[in-house]
Amino acid sequence: MSAEQSMVVAEKHRNVGVITLNRPQALNALSLGMIRDITAALLAWRDDDEVVAVVLRGATQEGKGVAFCAGGDIRFFHQAALAGDPRLEDFFTEEYTLNHLIHSYPKPTVALMDGIVMGGGMGLSQGAAIRVVTERSKLAMPETNIGLFPDVGGGYFLSRCEGRTGEYLALTGQVAGAGDAIALRLADFFVPSSQLGALLEALADQPMESGALVRASVVTHTQPKPAPQWSAHRAAIDAHFAHDGIAAIFASLEADPSEWAAATLATLRKRSPLMMAVTLEQIRRARGMELADDLRMERDMVRHSFHLRPGAASETVEGIRALAVDKDHSPQWNPLRVEDVKREDVLAFFASPWPAHAHPLRELA
């Protein structure tokens, strides 16, 4: 087994396939090799009559944080973009294809969303039929923090959150705990982290003749969901984030004297004005799309994120540099102000660089 292959461990336990993301030193961040290994396991088990369900989980390591999956390997994105590495294109095409595979998988998938579940981790888990959170769960789509947008189907699943919470999550990257995740329909069941071992043992060590039995076994280990933490702010979120553009959202928050509005505005002022405008457009468009069309749109967008302004001029490359490479946390966004974002620059992200017959995700149903 190579080092790359060992980052994903796929094992059959009686009637259940268990996929473990095994890169805990990097909070199980996804590499291209991991995406390929997960895809291969799912495709093999899809046609295996012995397997009635699949469990997705993340490995942990003493001294490291707990994570299901903290996202994609953004350092690789940075290096590949500057070097013109074609694997960057492969990464997103194959990741989005995997996201679609999980959403459309014919057998129940169970995502054990313990710890950090962000970015690519949300892409893996949101398509699961059974999404389990714990008291340690931290769900977020923080891509605007690196000058990107909430991809991996983020347009699809965030736009389907109640009210305008999808816009709020997409633009701020706000973290949701277990109670809020269930309330927002981003998770299904709450199981204390101390009980995950027993749940996995029940799933893997007892005969499971059907997906219905798998679901029933999960339900027997659940406990009442924690109270959501955002309830007091829901009306404000819906009011402020319903506005037509980023500048209008800023103006609305500026007119709100509450501490919550001030904190939200402070967060947004750290983000790329251009990519916030792109993200808002994405969420609004995706609300009327099926998943495959949303993923094709996001594939167009991510291509443009690295190529409309190539190399170091890319907002995404600059955002990753500031957050993860130089770690100065001082990205030089272009433009600096939301008022200076041009509509034509936003719309350029939504023009597909491929004709429909040649789109890398053309075969998604």
From TrEMBL:
It holds the Pfam family ECH_2. Residues 16-350 form the Enoyl-CoA hydratase/isomerase domain. GO terms for molecular function: 3-hydroxyisobutyryl-CoA hydrolase activity; isomerase activity. NCBIfam families: PRK05617.1. The keyword Isomerase applies. It comes from the Bacteria. CDD domains: crotonase-like. GO terms for biological process: L-valine catabolic process. InterPro entries: ClpP/crotonase-like_dom_sf (IPR029045), ECH_dom (IPR045004), HIBYL-CoA-H (IPR032259). This is Enoyl-CoA hydratase/isomerase family protein. The lineage of its organism: Bacteria, Pseudomonadati, Pseudomonadota, Betaproteobacteria, Burkholderiales. PANTHER family: 3-HYDROXYISOBUTYRYL-COA HYDROLASE (PTHR43176:SF6), 3-HYDROXYISOBUTYRYL-COA HYDROLASE-RELATED (PTHR43176). Keywords: Hydrolase, Isomerase.
